[in-house]
Amino acid sequence: PVSAGMNGSAIENFSCVIYNISLMNCTWQAGKDAPGDTQYFLYWQNSRYDDEMECELYIKDENGRNTGCRFQNVRIETEKDYFLVNGSSKDSLIQFYDEYIQLYKIEILTPPLNVTVNCTRDSAGCIITWQAPLTSHVENVKCFQYEISIQNK
């Protein structure tokens, strides 16, 4: 739907990232033409069967305006999740911003676990082993690709 409200009042530069398996940060900037009293509110729908839920822990700027949100216990379950940021002002109608995001594309993976290096004195070289990183959604460890950078000191 077309968002009613004053042009330039919707948020800009909306971005989310998932880290430490189940934490998600979303951030945005106030619309460049939004009135000074504009406050923004983020809603997230984790799946089409869940209700939209409002942010529980807003990140605020120095003027007390919501410019981000922290989510805990995030689960990557569906193909796409829905995000909506609307705003309110006593001066004018504020345009909303919405976006569908594939959460697996915004996850920062933890490092591989239990990295070990065993080197022999003969020319057999070294054996490096590790376990797959922890993640909220990858069930098949064959999905991971690794790159080893060896630097001689």
From TrEMBL:
Subcellular location: Membrane
Keywords from the UniProt entry: Glycoprotein, Membrane, Receptor, Signal, Transmembrane, Transmembrane helix
Keyword Cell inner membrane: no
UniProt source species: Eolophus roseicapilla
InterPro entries with a match to the protein in the record: FN3_sf, Ig-like_fold, Short_hematopoietin_rcpt_2_CS, TypeI_recpt_CBD
SUPFAM superfamilies: Fibronectin type III
Gene Ontology CC entries for this record: external side of plasma membrane
Name of the protein in question: CSF2R factor
Domain Type I cytokine receptor cytokine-binding intervals: 13-106
Calcium as UniProt keyword: no
Cited Pfam families: IL6Ra-bind
Gene, per the UniProt record: Csf2ra_2
Topological type in the membrane: Single-pass type I membrane protein
GO MF annotations, alphabetized: cytokine receptor activity
